[in-house]
Amino acid sequence: MAYTLTVLETNQHRFFEMLPKEWQDAIVPFWDAYKDAATIYGFEEDGNIIAGGIVFSTCPPDLFYYKNEAQQWFDKGYLYIGFLFVSEMKRNHNIGTIWLQQLKAKLPKQKFWLLIEEAHLHHFYKKNGFVLAQTLTTKELTEWLYLYQPVE
What we know:
The chain is an alpha+beta fold and 152 residues long. The chain has six helices and seven strands.
């Protein structure tokens, strides 16, 4: 099936409902404060949102601990990709890759950055053109910062 990346303007709540509970807790209570600096892009199938993510132009609420460092990437013209999620029933169908490809096609000159907490995602982002830029370690967590720069 062919998917078309769309801005989820009127059905944002359906995207949030798809997310794991801990992700919902990290974004839903803050959404009104961030919605003007963020865009939710998603794929719909049969009236259901099957994948999506949020592109932020300012530090999202789940990164407050990293706010000063994050601002450096925004100042360099990068946008942050957060809350990228594919519904469990649609995993292993290349939908995450298609989402990233279409986002990059929609914003062809845009640079992106993101953070991952799960080591098994390294290969996914590398195969999609992202480069590991930094490892961030706190007492409780290790995260990896990836960058994407379009080929000029």
